[in-house]
Amino acid sequence: MLNVLKRTRDRFMTMLERRGISREDLRRDWRLLPNWISYVRLALCWVPAVMLVLWFGNQTVRWVAFGLFVGLALTDWVDGLIARHWDMTSEWGKLIDPLGDKFLVAFTVLAVLAIHWDGPNGLLLALTVWVIFAREFILTAQIRLARQGVASPTNLGKVKTAVQFVLIAALVMPITWPDRTLLWALAITFGLTLLSWWEYYTLYVRPFRQSRCPLVR
User: Fold this and answer.
1) Phi-psi region for residue 148, left (φ > 0), alpha (ψ -120 to 50) or beta?
2) Which residue in 109, 129, 116, 123 sits closest to 174, CA to CA?
3) Taking each helix axis from N to C terminus, what angle separates 155-172 and 179-200, rounded to the nearest 10 degrees?
4) In Å, how far are 20, 43, 53, 66 from 40, measured between CA atoms?
5) pLDDT for 116-141, tens place per residue?
6) Nearest of 54, 161, 154 to residue 100 by alpha carbon
7) CA dist., res. 61 & res. 50, Å (int)
8) What are the CA-CA distances from residue 13 to residues 19, 21, 24, 93 (Å)?
9) By CB atoms within 10 Å of each CB, which of 1, 82, 165, 203 scores lowest?
10) Cα 101–54–124 angle (5° rounding)?
11) pLDDT digits over 34-80, tens only?
């Protein structure tokens, strides 16, 4: 068992070193306050989804899940503000901070799909969920392969994230939204997610592919 843990630790450290995070950097940066806020978001990212799936018919639980989701989403803004204001930015923080966002969105949007899939806009909701998953995980893997690091967020990426959070929060609330309002919200989120995917691909992935194969466009 100890040997397995040691091998796992060594592989983890090797992965971090490939991304420019040395053992000394990790020892220094893991205790920073913004990173602790990210740890909390990672530890609790699954809770709103579980509450929705198990007690979706309970309005009180839905409101609690809504409050928890919004609170966790806001921690992304808080840790970034603290890191920039008090000069606590770190490569380790740049790695784990977006992970909390991705898992919070992934878990909660799946729960939202589970309770809203049979609605009048269920097909568009399912397509939007698929695009969100594909964009977050496929694109992240492509960027890591291309850059061996973490891509800096763009303005469009930030807007996309904010719109996704607003849409998910609205669907978590125990409120029946007008079909037309929900249709437009889903269409806007779907479109912004695709545009952001294309922007990040052209900025970070396509140049790498062209450097490896000049015929790629």
Assistant:
1) left
2) 116
3) 150
4) 24, 5, 22, 17
5) 888 788 899 999 999 998 888 888 77
6) 161
7) 11
8) 10, 8, 11, 15
9) 1
10) 60
11) 999 999 999 999 999 999 999 988 999 999 999 999 999 999 889 88
**Residue in the structure block whose two tokens are 């977006």:** 98
pTM of the entire structure?
0.83
Residue in 217, 205, 76 with CA at minimum distance from that of residue 149? 205
